[in-house]
User: Fold this.
Amino acid sequence: MGLLPDNHVYSYSQLSSFDECPYGFYLERIEKVDQVQNAFAEQGTLIHDLIDLWAKGQIPIQDLPKEYEKRYADEVVSSWPRILASKGYAEKTYQQGLQYFENFDGFKGYKIINTEEKFLTTLSDRSFTGVIDMVLEDEKTGALIINDHKSKSLSSFKKEEKTIYRQQYLYSKYAKEKYGKYPDVLMFNLFKENGLKRFKDFSIDEYESVLDWAIQIIEKIENYEVLDWLESKETSDFFCQELCSVRNHCFNSMPTK
Assistant:
């Protein structure tokens, strides 16, 4: 398996990270350098947790706004990107989360089958893990739905629409194993868009294409030599500078003197 241990467990985030920047994957997963968080991820984690606690009956729906307000200052502690902070983005995104919970409809029209379901399966005899944010059933049609809570704006979502469903398709393999069928629908819950839902009908052809992509990425990771790992993005971008967890160790994001 190259530089990875034989018992390495893959995840979608690892595969997409390698696909985007092998050097970033190398720093995070092989060198295991110290990582830094970002405020986007911290807010997303908080909102995921509150939805999960509500779905499990541990927080009444009417208490979600005040729980969000109470926990926000303690849990969203990283700085917002410099280019956004000057535009009042921190307050804007805080208000987006608060508005989401003030208008939260409790996934009306859907039966919640499971929430934050961690799983372990295999891809090409390699271990693969993930967490399905929510498994739903449409109360009218009985359709099985895999849902993912996303912090993206609608415009950002549309830009990534060709690849953003890869995660859902990989998780569909486990759904088939657990529920005896592939999901009928893949859903995204855009909480920064006041809970706007985006849907895609499950396609077996797309599913198989995504499986092929994942297996090819795994094979490439395991065949990489030491010098191959120095391959990175050709130019630094917003993600490199502000969001990448290993940005403090990468020449693409470290400030020049």
In short: The mean pLDDT is 92.
